Amino acid sequence: MSSTMDSDPLLALRHAIKTKSPITYVANSEPTASLLAASHIVLSPTLSLPKSTTTRYSKPGTSASLPSDFFTLEAVYLAWLLRDAPAAEYMKQARDSGLAVGFVSVTERKSIVEWLEGKVNDLKRIVSLAAESTTPPGTPTHPGAATIPLITPKRAAHAVDTTTTPSKRRYVADQQDVEIVKRIKQNEVELRDRNTVLRGTKPNNFSALRAIYSEKLKKLKETKPGAIPAPAPAAGPHMQSRKAKNQYPIIMISSSPTALITMHNVKRFLQESLFESSSAARERAAAAGNSRAEDVIHIDRRRVPPSSSSQPTSTSRGDIQRYFVVDSTDALQKFGADAWERVVCVMTTGQAWQFRPYRWSEPRALFHHVKGVYVSWANDPPNTKIKDWNVTELKIDPHRRHIDKSVVAHFWQLIDDWTIANKPWLIKS
């Protein structure tokens, strides 16, 4: 066994790591601390191997038939030496050590490290030694099997082809050509596509998915080719109510940074009945670590039953109604293809460009399908642009915050009246 370790670089490195023997470097018979400057790696007092020695660990995607198809001793040792380094740091140090290409990839580093440390006994891409083969003599060679003959470092330089036959001689590459090819390969970059990177080792099992759809496919095959399917019943108000049972109304606001109501302050305004300027709300959110506003905000509001007074009591508390607020059509698309059927209100600043990406870009057509609300300061002069837009003005006082509650209550009354009249299936009963 000792002779096998001394003759095989991979086993010698594994033995040195498992026994925690010191591994040093030598350059021109002189010790050195740099792997880049070293020419040999000393694995034991009696064994020093060139760092470019080819190991039995084959590279992925190769036939494992040429010396260039295997990792060098330096590459395998560097993978173990930097086993705990992050991926970026590992690749940087590999390049700094002279391995621009040919180093063990980050995805393969863990498996070779576990083999070197003795945590696993077998590794798929480590080619077996010819001396370790247990195949009975005369057994035909398996097409996918590969072995590397056991050659000691001293005999490697003077190896003589012993597999020659009278009819065919084994090709022996010229040493000068080998050096030229080695220099060319140093400038090559190993490319990996998404298939090789994302391919896992665990086999995919879709039996559960097949079982789900097998019954449906069987029914489809049993259906007669000329059969006419039964017509679906018309969707009346009751069916629409069942279809939209779990759907919530949507409110769209302007994405203009000068708008009084933005994604920064809309939740506090509509849910807590307190107006806060958009800049102040943005600064407060930034101080809490939320520098960017969400593109979808939900508002939970307790609806007062129609028969009760404006102030709910302990015996007349209504249901919680949820609304979603968005400021762009991109965010609206997250609710599906029928999202516009759930829009009950559009808050506008009086700027027509707001409606360009909408389903109805013309203001009069838009506010025929949704409730329009124009938000402005209480002391602003009337806006002549909105006089024929069919919108309701919602005026906010710049200073008196105690009247915000009545302004918000008026807004919700507008939304309730319009929704009950036009889209009652969105109101939670």
Descriptive account of the structure:
- With 429 residues, this protein is an alpha/beta fold.
- Helix content is 32%, strand content 15%.
- The protein contains 15 helices and 14 strands.
- The strands form four sheets. Strands 10-11-9-12-13-14 form a six-stranded mixed β-sheet, sandwiched between helices. The chain has a four-stranded antiparallel β-sheet with strand order 2-1-3-4.
- Helix 14 links the parallel strand 12 and strand 13.
- The longest helix is centred in the last third of the chain and has 19 residues.
- The chain is elongated, with a radius of gyration of 38 Å.
- About 10% of the residues have low confidence.
SS-based class: alpha/beta
Instruction: Give the CA-CA distance, first to last residue.
Output: 82 Å
H/E series? HHEEEEEEHHHEEHHHHHEHHEEHEHEEH
- Could you give the order of strands across the largest sheet? 10-11-9-12-13-14
Mean pLDDT across residues: 79
Share of β-strand residues: 5-15%
Number of strands: 14
How does the major sheet shape up?
6 strands, mixed
From the alpha-carbon coordinates, what is the Rg to the nearest angstrom? Answer: 38 Å
List low-pLDDT spans: 131-139, 141-165, 241-245, 312-316
H/I helix tally: 15
Shape: elongated
Helix content: 25-40%
Give keywords.
429 residues, six-stranded mixed sheet, 15 helices
Q: Briefly, what is this?
A:
With 429 residues, the chain is of the alpha/beta class. The protein contains 15 helices and 14 strands.
